[in-house]
Amino acid sequence: MMRGVTTVLCEREEMPMSFRDNLQHLRDLQDMSQADLAQRIGVSRQSVAKWEAEKSYPEMDKLIKICDLFGCSLDDLVRGDLAGREAASAEPSSAGGKAGCEGVVEDVPVDVWGYDERMRRCAWDVAAAVAVVILGFGAGINFTTMGPNVNPAPFIIFFSMGVALALLLVKPMWEEYRAFLKEHPQIDDFYTPEQKAESRSAKGGAIAGAVVLVVAGLNMPGLFGWFQQYTFAALAMFGCLALASAIVVYAVMMDRRTDVARYNRLSAGTTVAEPDAAKAPTAGDTLAS
């Protein structure tokens, strides 16, 4: 294995010609076009065409992505004879009728786009933004009503700070999300039924926990009412409400992230809404190699 890696890194010009045949063979097994493969590993279709025409060779990170995608080893991909193995495994003496490289027994979905990590970051940023807005509102109410006279200045300051922090969280996240949406307009559903069920279950638990926090928050004024002077009842109440809201938003977005079909529909709608989308090249052509 290490010898194969060294050869790819240091002597790429001597890479065996079987790489081209193996890549074409693996694509044929999965009924995958050059554009499909390019989109999954994050390169342009022209790059894949050059690899198969032996005009260039992929970098190590792309080779590893190809291996992960098709479930084969690096040695088998660049040195082996995968088509020959399939022919041999088709004989009656072969055990189990395995074809292709080792591990290519079933098409196991893999997140080669970084979709899950992106959606997790989006869920965290949006949940945090909602929390800081509510917390800023609560802090403003608390310090505005504290003391013998009502002064609106603290409310304006704290609420503005909450909104500003929320914008700092959401704006970069939204720009990165739109860029990801354009770069990966369509992805395959790689989530298992167990993962989807786990997300739904987590959402239900989060909602139940949020209800408890809301009830606790609404009882904060009564609890702090035992104190006669300068309490933080409003701040404590809105703190509970902010945490409850953040938990629900995060859980709902984490559940929605497993709905890949919804993401693909949203991506298709965004593409149709853009007037220049029809003139743009395909996603596989625009991805950077």
UniProtKB/TrEMBL annotation:
Keywords: DNA-binding, Membrane, Transmembrane, Transmembrane helix. The keyword Transmembrane applies. Residues 23-77 form the HTH cro/C1-type domain. The keyword Transmembrane applies. InterPro entries: Cro/C1-type_HTH, Lambda_DNA-bd_dom_sf. Coiled coil: none annotated. GO terms for molecular function: DNA binding. SUPFAM superfamilies: lambda repressor-like DNA-binding domains. The chain crosses the membrane at residues 122-141, 153-170, 205-224, 230-253. PROSITE patterns: HTH_CROC1. This is Predicted transcriptional regulators. It comes from Gordonibacter pamelaeae 7-10-1-b.
